[in-house]
Specification:
Serine Threonine Protein Phosphatase 5, Tetratricopeptide repeat, 0% strand
Amino acid sequence: MSSLECGSRDPVKPRSADGKRAQQKAPWRAMAIVVTAACGLLGVSVAPRVWTEFQIRKARRLMDARQDARALDLLRRAERFQPNSGSIQFHLGRVHRHLGDTETSGKHLAIARQNGYAEHLVDREYQLISAQQGQFGEIEPYIGALLANEVTELPDICEALARGFVKTLRFRDAHRMLDSWALVEHTDPVLHTMRGELFRLRDEWKPAIDSYKMALLHDPDHADALLGLGEAFLEMAQWSEAEEAFRRARPLFEVRENADRERVERGLVRCLIELRSDDPSRRDEARALTADLTADLTANDEWRPMLARLALAEKRPDRAIAWLAPRVACWPDEIATASLEAEAFRALGRVEDADRRTRAVELAAREWSGVAPLLKVLDEQPKNADVRYEIGELVVRLRSRRDGIRWLEAATLLDSFHRAAHERLIATCEKAGEVELGIRFRRRMESIVEVVHR
């Protein structure tokens, strides 16, 4: 017998024992291949959804921590993978509402609804958009139902409602909503900062300071609370405390090229002038903060009074009068500006002019005393648009364009057809150099007029 016949294995037909094992393994191998393939296909279909849900949960945590810009970035990345996800679109709508972009928020919510996201949640988010904008006309009957939601959602709901009440200057309703918010999340610094703003708008400086301090107790680097605290201390002539608040706030506002950053810098300059103004180093610092300014401040003349104060501290009253002249021409009844001008005239020895401006200050102060009775009327009639318009007129002429605009806007939100408030609001924005704001308010008025004429 040949070696081939004796020792070799048939390459086609296996030996009996090995053959049985191979036959036993074959079905398991096939099954393993099928299971692996199925798992692969399942992974391909499930993995993106799992990753997306993870991104949404992460974005929600960021929103809870008030890191809305980072949350928006996460959600946009998730949207690229699943653009038709109702959940992603809903949360994009929410984060845009948090950021104040209600138009974009509404677009994402419409897509969420089209893709089958929970109808009642989308409806609630639309209601919160209206509330946050101060448009309570249609949703006011549903406020109780909104507050009956699960506890985890209440801070967001309370904040949106509180912002709307603050925007419309419904003081009692705003305080009540802030109280409801505090019951579920009393450590939020935004809550206490908003309460401080309510007190500030009524010249209630002591409770305003207490509210801002409470906000800073929970977040020592809360920029808006530091700014509010500094301005409240300025009104109380507590220069050291105001300077400390502004110095702490300044680095936090460095990245902001807006009016709030300028408010911090103006406040700091005021403190440098009022406190130890004979110190050359403090005057040098004040000059450095105003170094980039020129006489051409027509777009925003809020710096003029501060530059006039600096000129008076440097014993240059003629320069102070020059700084104030355009502002006096624009806002002749403003109490603070008239007081500064009277001081400058007196330093120049122009007694008659100084006495004339002093009388103007006294007259304006008597006129300003009429605000207190109007506030009492407002407490009794919290939705009275006419009273808000009257207060807004006084605030614009005698005190502050920024706050006056808030009062006038509140009147238009409570009464869409209050033509005098609309017209005064637009005129004030244009006169104060707030061009974009004036355009927005003009478009709103035109849309209301268009609806009326249909």
